[in-house]
Amino acid sequence: MPGQNLPREEAAKRAELLSVASYDIALxxxxxxxxxxxxxxxxxxxxxxxxxxxxxxxxxxxxxxxxGKDLDPAEVYVDSRIVLGDLKADNELTVVADCAYMHxxxxxxxxxxxxxxxxxxxxQFEVPDSRRVFTVFEQxxxxxxxxxxxxxxxxxxxxxNSPTPAPTSGAHEGTQVFxxxxxxxxxxxxxxxxxxxxxxxTGSYTSVDGREIPLGTYCRASLAQYMDAEExxxxxxxxxxxxxxxFGTPYAFTKYDQVFVPEFNAGAMENAGCVTHRDDxxxxxxxxxxxxxxxxxxxxxxxxxxxxxxxxxxKWWNDLWLNESFAEYTSTxxxxxxxxxxxxxxxxxxxxxxxxxxxxxxxSTHPIAAEIKDLHDVEVNFDGITYAKGASVLTALVAYVxxxxxxxxxxxxxxxxxxxxxxxxxxxxELEKTSGRDLGxxxxxxxxxxxxxxxxxxxxxxxxxxxxxxxxxxxxxxGSPASLRPHRVAIG
Length: 492
Known about the structure:
GO terms for molecular function: alanyl aminopeptidase activity; metalloaminopeptidase activity; peptide binding; zinc ion binding. By secondary structure, this protein is of the alpha+beta class.
C-alpha cells in the first residue's frame, strides 16, 4: 500500500513519463462545515501505453473519467493515489470528489473567529497538501497552468494566484462564483485559495517593465482596525524595487496580495502572488521594534521567493534549503538596505547564526544540501540548518565570488530557467561562469558536510607583552563530522 508518501525515485519516473499542460479546478465552498466539492480536469501528455498515478486525499471520490472512460474509484483509488493505465499521447482526466476542511494547517484550513463568528479559509500546500483540495500530480517539477473557479458564500472575497475577478451570482441563493484567469506555469505547492470576509487595503507598484502591479494586504475583519497597512505596503514596494534591480529580472506574476491568516503553522508561505502570513504580525498593541523588524524580514523573505522558488523552482525537495537560504539571505540584505532596520545583519548574526551554530552541534544535524529520499525526509528538514546555516553559508559564498558576480550569476540563472525547474548544479554553473571560480571543493566542504569547526588565535609575546607572532588555528571538535574548511578572516 503506498500510503501518503512519495519516494524520489517514483517522482523522477513519473516526471519522465508525462508533462502536464493545465488544470481546471472547480471548488464549491458552500456545501457545509466538514467538506467541500472539488472537481478537477487535468490535461497532460504521456508516453503512450504507460501507467502512472495522480494524487488525491479525499473522504469521497464520486467519479473518475480518463479519456472519456469511466474508472471505478473502488478499483483505482487507494490511499492517496489514483492509478492511471493505458495512457495516450494526449490525455484528459476528470475527477469529482468531496474533500475535507482541515483544522491542522494543511490543505484548506477552516477557522471560525470567536470575536464575531465569521468563518475564514486559507490553503497551505507545502509540502504535499494541494492533493487535499484537488486532484494533482503532487511534485514540484510537474509545473502547469491552474485555472480556479470558486463558489463561495455571498459577502466573501476569494483570493488566489491570479487577480480576484468580479463575482457572478451562483446557482443557489446566497452564493457567488469567482472565475479566475489561468496562472503562469507554476508548481502545485505554491497555488493558493484564501476565502472569507477578509478586509484590507490596496495599492500598486510600477514594475521596471512598465506594468502596474496591484498590491493588497488583508486580514480578518476583527483585526482590521489594527493593521498598519501603510507600513506593510511601503516595505513591500521597497522590496519590489530592490529585488527587480538586484536580480535583473521583472516581477513574474500579475499581482501581489498578502493575507494575514489565523492559526497558521508557519511564519508565512510564498504562494505565487498570494502570500499568507500568520496574523500574529497584525499587532494589537504597540510592539517592540524587534518584532516589527522580524515582520519586515518575513515580508521581504516571501517576496524574494517570487523569483527564487516560484518563478524558478527546485526540481526536487533536496534543494529546499536553497530556496529558503536564498530568501533568508536576500531578505536580510533588503531589510538592511531598504528599511529603517539598517542593523538587520546584526540581528541576523545574533539570532539566525546562533540558531545555526546550535543546530549544527546536535546529533540531529545534517548537511545543508541533504539527501531527501521521500516526502517524510522533507518534513524534518525545515530547521536551523536549512534556513539559518544555509543563509550564513550563502553570505560566505557571496564574499568568495564577489557580490557583483554573484547577482550577475543569479540573473543568468533566473533567465535560463524562468517558469521551469532547476538544481543546485544549475546555479553553481552560472556562478562559476560569472566569477571564474571553481566551486566544486567549496560545495563539498560547506554544503555537503555537516558540523562545525573552531577557529582560535595562537599568540606569542615577548617579555614586554608585545605580540611577536600570531596564527589562526582551525580545529575539528571531537565528534564533529566536518572537515577543515577555507575561511577568510579579518585580523586587526
